[in-house]
Each structure stands twice: as C-alpha cells, then as structure tokens.
Amino acid sequence: MLSGSDVHWWGAMTSDFENMTDSGFVISDHKLNQTFNNQSFVVRLLDNVTWDSIGVVSVWDLPTASDFGHVLLSNATEQDSSSSKSESPPSESKDAATPGKSNNSEPFKAPTMFDNCKKLSDKYRLRWTLNVDEGYVDIGLEATTGLLNYMAFGWAKPNTTSNLMLNADVVITGIREDGFPFADDFYITKTSVCSVRDGFAAGVCPDTVYEGSDAVGSSVNNTKLVYGHRIDGVSFVRYRRPLNDSDNKFDFPVNATENLTVIWALGVIKPPDVINPYYLPENHGGVESENYGHFSLSLSYHVDECLGPLDADNKYDQGVIIADANAPLVVTAGPSVHYPNPPNPAKVLYINKKEAPVLRVERGVPVNVNLDDQQVKFFWTIVGDSISIAARGEKKSGYLAIGFGSEMTNSYAYVGWFDRNGTGHVNTYWIDGESASSIHPTVENMTYVRCKSEEGIITLEFTRPLKPSCSHRDRPECKNMIDPTTPLKVIWAMGAKWTDGQLTERNMHSVTSQRPVRVMLTRGSAEAEQDLRPVLGVHGFMMFLAWGILLPGGILSARYLKHIKGDGWFKIHMYLQCSGLAIVFLGLLFAVAELNGFSFSSSHVKFGFTAIVLACAQPVNAWLRPPKPAQGELMSSKRLIWEYSHSIVGQSAVVIGVVALFTGMKHLGERNGAENVDGLNWALGLWVFLGVVTVVYLEYRERGRRRARNLSRGNWVLGNVEEDDSTDLIDSRGGFRDKDDEEGRNGGRSEIQLEPLK
C-alpha cells in the first residue's frame, strides 16, 4: 500500500459512500502513513469502539475522503455481540479477508486474487491459480505499460534449448482502445509481425489465422478471457487455459508438476484494420529481463514474489477527455460501473460517454486549426521570438508527421513516433525528393519536446525559435525560418512505422494531405491552399496595364502634348486616366473576390491600397478645381496650389503603383511558389527603365522647345506667325496659364510689341 497523508483504520456500518463519509469513524490509533510491502501486524480497537458497531473495516485517507480498501464484516454482530472489546475480528471475518483460505463456506475471491505471483521484471508480473481437478490454470498478467501495448506469456516448444520464441505457444493479452480486455491464442512460426501471403500465414499469428477458412467453428482458440481492467496506468488481464488442450497443432500440453520453459514479452501492438481483424504484436525489442525473457516454471510450486502494488509513471492514459476550443462537452450522470476507488458512489459523471474521465484542457495554446481533410489538428502559440507547436492526429497511426512547405519535396518535416520500448520521439528532417533516401535528418534547437499516444492517437509537441541561430549557414535547417506575418504552409502525413535509423520504403506514409493549408499565425485562422496563379496572373496583368501604361500615359499627355492644336491633349489625358482607374478597380475586385478579402499585413497590399487612394483622389481634385483667371490676369494662389497638388498627387500615385507591381511579384512567389517570378521581375524592371529613358528624352525636348519659344518671344516681329500654341504651366510673367488663354488667338484682345527694322 502506498503511503498517504493522514490514513487511519476506519469503521462504518455499511459500505455505501454516504455512510462511509458521513457516519464513518476512526476505530484504532494505529496509523498507516507509510508504505507497506507485504507486512503483518496486530491492530487494536479504541476503548470506546465495539465490534457490534462496525460492519465495514476500511483503510481511509481523511484529507481526501478516499477508501484505500475495505473488508465487509457481515456476521460480526451475530458472532461477537457479547464482547465489548476485541483485539481482532471474528474468525469468519478474518477468513473472508484472507484470500486463498478455505472453510465450510467458500469465500468470495475477486478476479484479481491468485494463489501465486512471480516477478518477471520491475514492471511485469505473472500470477496463477492451479486447479488440477478441473484441468485448467488461471493466469493473470499485470504490467505498467502503455494502453495499446501487449502482454505475452506462453510455453516454449518442449525440448527446445535455443531460439525459444520460435514455435512457441503463447497468449497475447492487452486492453483495447475502448477499455475492454482481450486474450487470444497465438503460435510463432517467425519472429515478425503476422502476414498472410498466397493463403499461408507466417509470423506471430493467432491460431485461427493458420487454420484459415477451416477455423470457422473450430476450437483452436482455447484461451478463455475471464477478466481485465486498466487502472492508474496498470493493465491487468486474467484468462483460463486448459492443461491438456484438444488443439494439438498449435497448443502444447502442460504437466503441472514438471518444470517447463516459459517465455514472456512486453511490446507495442498493432490495432485491427479493414484487412486484419486481430490485435497483432510487433517486435518487443528492448533489453532482456526488462522487455522479454524466459525461465523454468512448475505450476504446482508455490511462489510469492510480489510485494506492494505496481506503480506506473503515467496513471491517466485511460478515460481522458481533451477539451478543444469550440468543442462541446456532453456531461451526464450515470451508474458507477468501473470507478476505481471503492466504495463506489451510486452515480458518477459521464463526459462524452466516458465514466468519470480525466478532463484535460490544453492551456497556453489559444489557437488551433484543422489541416487538410480534417484528420490532423494544428496548435500554436507565439511568445517573444519563439513559437510552440503541437499537432494531433484524429485517427490511430504508427507515426504522425507535419511539414512546412507546399508539398513533401523541399519541405521541413517534424515526425512524432514511438520506438519498440514505447518511448516517444520527435525527429526533424529536410526533404528534397520523394524517395526514402531524400529524407535527411536535421538538428534543430527544439525545447519542451514531447510525443504521446492516447488510444493510438499521436500528439507531438515542441517549441522552437522563429529564426534559427546557426553558425553554419550552409545547413538546411538554418533556412527554416518562420515569419508570423506571412502565411505558413503546413502539410501532414501518417504511416505505420518509423525509425531513427536507415529509412526505407516501408517507412513511407500510408495517408497524407492532398494540399497544404495556409496558416495565418497572427490572425489565428487557416485556409486551404488553392492554385490561384491564373487568377493572380489576370489581376497582375490588369494592374500592369493600368499602372504601367494607361495612367503614366495620361500624365505624359498632359505634360508633353499641349502643343497639339485644340484640346486634343486634354481628351487624351481624360480618356487614359479614366480607363486606367476603371481597370484598377476591376483588378482589385477580381483579387478580393477570389481571395475572400485581403489583409494589410503584406507590403503589396499597403503600397497598392495607397496608390489606389491617391488615384481616386484625382477625380475629386479635378471636380474641385478653382476657376481659371480672366484674360490678362495672373493665376490665383488657389489655382496655383491646385495645379501643383494635382500634378504631384498624380505622379506619386503612379510611382507607388509601380512599386506595388514589384511587391506583387514578390508576394506571388512567396504565396504560390511561381517559378517564373524572377523573369517577370526582370521584364517589369526593363519596362520601367525604358519608361524612365522615354521621360528623360521627352523632358529634354520639351525644355529645348521652351528655350526656343522664349527666344522667339524676345525677338518677335510683325509677320511672325510661328507663335507656339503650347502653353507651359508657368509663363514669363510668373503666373499659370490655362488652355483657355488661347482665346487671344481666336479673336480676343491681345497686346504685341513692335520694333523697328534695321
């Protein structure tokens, strides 16, 4: 018995929970605050306690009101009514509390009670009770092992001295994921997992598999399951085996008085699937005398080597409910069936149909999303310059892997798996191909690494820096950086078996994601990756047409085409600007509709939105244009400010729009991995360069034309009809001129200067 904080001998009239807690009392001053291993002692009642007031003797922990175990004294009042005090219970009660004793009325024995117990290892025990008259032996296997692990015990082939596992007759037992026990007859023809090829079975297989279709209605599986449970991380299974079996093919006869060689093992079991209906044991591995072994056993010898209870490190692997965000918990009250702490209360709480489970809440992980096909859940939290990541499969598997990338090739992978000893691992890899030889181990700076399995469901957890600190930048893991502002592409895979040694095709996944999921780390959301390159290509072309051709063309027409007769330059300017702005809006709506909105976290969106705002301000600016000055008057200050602002805002919009084109190319490459982004960037850069050269050339010609015009004005003579119709923004008088100033050439009043001819 493990020690408690304040444990006493306790008495009550009945064993129901209310009576034990409300009416129970201390019956002895003998304290039990230590660990007891197979010890015997005399317990004396208190002076004020008599046996007629006690119907139940219990070992009771006061602070937690927990019953460590109790004995019913059903006849205590009748047989000791004349005694006021006693040093021990009456003989019948003592007999009822002592397993294995026999009297006139056969005492009840719990299925966990046996006549013999042998310690196989620190975490595995063998118990048995022999019944020669009935021709059977009851065997109990008890171990601190994982939920989906097996406990194996059996007899080696008679007269075998080496390779004792081969041709052995064993029973494989364990606890299923639903909490129910199993025990099946197995025969070993090879030390490998059972397989059936061309109708022939080989390996560690159930007896019925060797018989094939002939096993229907046969009696080759003569092992009878009696009882089983799993409590506090300890699995226990009791089964019955006949001493002389009718199955002489796969079962050996057992002579109860003869020393026979027996074998045992602990290991991981493979759950049934659509092809295999059995729980099949995998290679136990590990160290001899810890995970497997053999010895000589005579069932008739009395053995008592088991002191105290088995104590598992992980006591809460059964009946665990994990509370996820937005997942409702169904809580009901029902009868107490398997509640492990007697006396059982009449009713207990059932959560999601599990009796009195452990409720586990993921704390510190506020965000989780489902990856592709809803078969893997991805958790994360960002603290400072590090990120904590967890992934949990939604179905049973041998290993679970997640990767960062658009596909398996050129991705960084994290694999959670269990070795033969049931120890969990998380390995990291760089994958540059589709074969097993293309999976290269890496060394990442991970902390708080954990891999666990609950009923075959694997969960892996780790914490890593957002930007790895590497002294050797040529290592692949040094490039495995996570930018919280950029969507993280996550893929997943599951398989049957993994290893930290040489990987083969047998380690390849059996199921995988069909497409990556883009996880927005800062927003706490995710979306399935879609091939949007055609859509974004149309969006990019429309924006190039607007910001690279139409809108710059409208600005150039207003700057360099005013020498055209009439208002042709003005019409060209208006048509190009309106067309460009319309295409900008179409391109924007096209992208927003396909991407279900947009976020301002990327530089492309920031530059693009700024350019659109400035472009939309231009029509409003034009509508608010101050009136032009009268003929002969100087430009007003309002008109002057408007001319400058209209020109500067328009030019700024185009410059920022061109920058948005470049950032859009970069964003396209990061999001969709477009292979021709570099080529498009060079083409766009060449186009911008040609545009700048063109503007420089036009500006040079414009300034030359202005110099010539000013010179002709200074030497103007009568009859000179080569007056330049073009008007610059600023004339020689220091004011702005409007295109309407040309009225002087159309009949309006004008002034000229006459000079004498020489």
UniProtKB/TrEMBL annotation:
Organism superkingdom: Eukaryota
Ranges of Low complexity composition bias in the record: 81-91
Gene3D superfamilies, alphabetized: 1.20.120.1770
Keyword rRNA-binding assigned: no
Subcellular location(s) per record: Membrane
Annotated protein name in UniProt: Cytochrome b561 domain-containing protein
Transmembrane regions listed in the UniProt entry: 541-561, 573-593, 605-624, 644-662, 682-700
Domain DOMON: from-to ranges: 122-267, 374-495
